[in-house]
Design goal:
This protein has 88 residues and is mainly alpha-helical. It has four helices and two strands. The chain has one domain.
Length: 88
Amino acid sequence: MVDFKNLEYGVVAGMQIIKALNRNIGLPFCRDDLYKKQQQVANEARERGLLINPNPFGRTGYGDTGVMVPSVNGWEQTKGIQRRILST
């Protein structure tokens, strides 16, 4: 069972997206199947344009969720994606 914290954007602003997602379920980190699901959440949020890439022209390029952070306008939707994916 996952303990969703429903964190406000201000708590996760500027955090790497996987770290923000982990914080939203009260974990300092995750691995294995949970990490894969968190990646799935991050990728869906990226595809929907809900994340910010703070360095879009850097060497990591577009789509690297390792550097992407939540956006103020997309965080609520990202949490919804997380709830849907982790509840299955």
